[in-house]
Write a structure and sequence with these properties.
Helices cover 41% and strands 16% of the residues. It has 263 residues and is an alpha/beta fold. It has a single domain, classed as Zn-dependent exopeptidases (Aminopeptidase). The chain has a 7-stranded mixed beta sheet, sandwiched between helices. The longest helix has 27 residues. The radius of gyration is 17 Å and the shape is globular. The protein binds zinc ion (ZN).
């Protein structure tokens, strides 16, 4: 895709021992020059020693749902956008939140999507929540961020203090536009699947602080609701969900290309 790149790009390349999965490409060697096509890094939340949230009755683990959806999202994005798509993990392994960010920046991400599944005390709550980085606007978002931030293992517990600086370079405006495009296609495609709603929210997710590109954390559904947990386990449902997210991202990239071609 030929378009000028927005000014939030940082070009730092750092050594990292992870070998990511390259979807739709030939090799996974360290990047030497910027590829012409957009680079999208998908982060399958949790993994290895960290199962994430676990559904009560069915013992469905977030780490498995996030990986299954991330894999489908990677192949769907490669097809729909022609982007180079990388996964932070392609199997059941432990990664710190910092490692996920470092991988995204090493790949010089244009977009970073962290995939998760939600849980809350109210077992009736269902739906998809799309987060971008900003101050939490409600108590539920604050609690969720606390849980999802546990993977940072206290490496930077003062991250709230440094956040005000980071927010200025965190491509917040682009992330909000991306969130709106993904919400639009999710609403259209997931309503017929029984998903009652799609909400865009903000919170202080540590994994979004470090990625130097527009970033979303998508809570794909509530494992604390038995109906939604059953849905999230179905490969056909995962495919529809992944395709809907990919379509929203494709729409965002098209509108971004239009906007930046005018500069
Ligand atoms: Zn999670």
């Amino acid at each position: 895709m030929a378009h000028s790149r927005p000014s939030f790009r940082h070009g730092a390349v750092s050594a990292l021992l992870l070998t990511p999965l390259l979807v739709g490409g030939a090799e996974a060697a360290a990047p030497k020059a910027r590829p012409a096509e957009p680079v999208i890094v998908i982060d399958a939340g949790h993994g290895g020693r960290d199962p994430g949230t676990i559904s009560k009755g069915q013992r469905i683990r977030e780490k498995e749902i996030s990986l299954a959806i991330s894999r489908k999202l990677a192949s769907s994005l490669a097809k729909k956008t022609g982007a180079r798509v990388y996964l932070t993990r392609s199997r059941d392994e432990s990664l710190t939140l910092d490692q996920r960010d470092r991988l995204a920046n090493w790949r010089q991400c244009d977009l970073f999507l962290s995939i998760h599944a939600n849980a809350t005390r109210n077992s009736k709550t269902q739906g998809v929540e799309i987060y971008y980085l900003n101050r939490a606007t409600d108590e539920a978002s604050r609690r969720l961020a606390q849980r999802e931030n546990q993977g940072s293992r206290g490496e930077k517990e003062d991250y709230e203090l440094i956040l005000s600086d980071l927010l200025q370079t965190a491509a917040t405006e682009e992330s909000a536009l991306l969130a709106a495009d993904v919400k639009k296609t999710l609403l259209k495609k997931m309503k017929p699947q029984g998903v009652p709603g799609v909400r865009v929210k903000t919170a202080l997710f540590y994994v979004l602080v470090g990625a130097k590109c527009p970033s979303l954390l998508i809570e794909t559904g509530f494992l604390s609701n038995s109906q939604e947990a059953r849905r999230l386990k179905r490969p056909d449902y995962q495919r529809i969900l992944a395709d809907a997210i990919a379509e929203g991202v494709a729409n965002y990239l098209r509108s971004q290309a239009d906007r930046f071609s005018d500069l």
